[in-house]
Amino acid sequence: MRVLKNLFDQNREWAEKVKESDPDFFQKLSKQQNPEYLWIGCSDSRVPSNQIVGLLPGEIFVHRNIANVVVPSDLNCLSVIQYAVEVLKIKHIIVCGHYGCGGVKAAMEKDEHGLIDNWLHHIRDVYRTHSAEIDVIEDKALKFDRMCELNVIEQVANVCNTTIVRNAWKRGQELSVHGWIYSIENGILQDLNVCVTGIEDVPENK
Q1: What is the DSSP letter of 23?
Q2: What tens digit of pLDDT does each residue of 132-172 get?
Q3: From which residue to which does the signal peptide run (predicted)?
């Protein structure tokens, strides 16, 4: 008996539906990968990158981790960025967080969570940077939402300050870095008005 047979059945149904609408879709897809976008998002299963922006397979290159964090020590994330920028020549890097992020929530708590605390340390750095703003927000829900937003903004700065992105701008490559946030409650994306298009506009890490 095949394990998880229902998923294989659903896969076949999905593939058939795609071929009905575009008989050559998979043949064309197999010959090239030419996305314009790199999506750096949270691993949360409720935030599927392709679906929420209405893009098909092959149209968006994706990296996901807990709380959409970008740090210089994460060779996995940096390798994805390098491949996207230097090989795929993507034009947009989108850092997308979401409200209700479990990683951000855990980072705001004083409890110990085990191994993941090493990762959450990066989000706690965001709090320390913006504590003056965060601490005056009395409503816990609003404080949580703002931390999710600030985490995205800080990760955009981290992306912009990678040597990969800075070198791309230095050689004149067209590349923009965006900060977005997604609401699981209504399915709507929000632009955080953070868009960096050149080295002269790179925000400093505070």
Answers
A1: T
A2: 999 999 999 999 999 999 999 999 999 999 999 999 999 99
A3: none
Sequence-distant (≥ 6) Cβ neighbours of residue 64 within 8 angstroms: 39, 40, 41, 42, 43, 49
This prediction has a pTM of: 0.92
- What residues act catalytically? 42, 44, 46, 98, 101
SS3 state at 193: strand
Helix H or strand E encompassing 147? helix 140-160
**Fold of the CATH domain 34-199:** Beta-carbonic Anhydrase; Chain A (3.40.1050)
Beta carbons within 8 Å of 52's beta carbon, 6+ residues apart? 182, 187, 189
Q: How many CB atoms lie within 10 A of CB 157?
A: 19
Amino acid identity at 12: R
Find out whether 92 and 159 touch, Cβ atoms under 8 Å: no
Q: Output the known binding site for Zn(2+).
A: 42, 44, 98, 101
Separation between Cα atoms, residue 62 and residue 125, nearest integer Å? 25
Q: Is the pLDDT score of 177 beyond 90?
A: yes
Return residue ranges of the chain for CATH 3.40.1050.10: 34-199
SS3 for 111?
A: coil
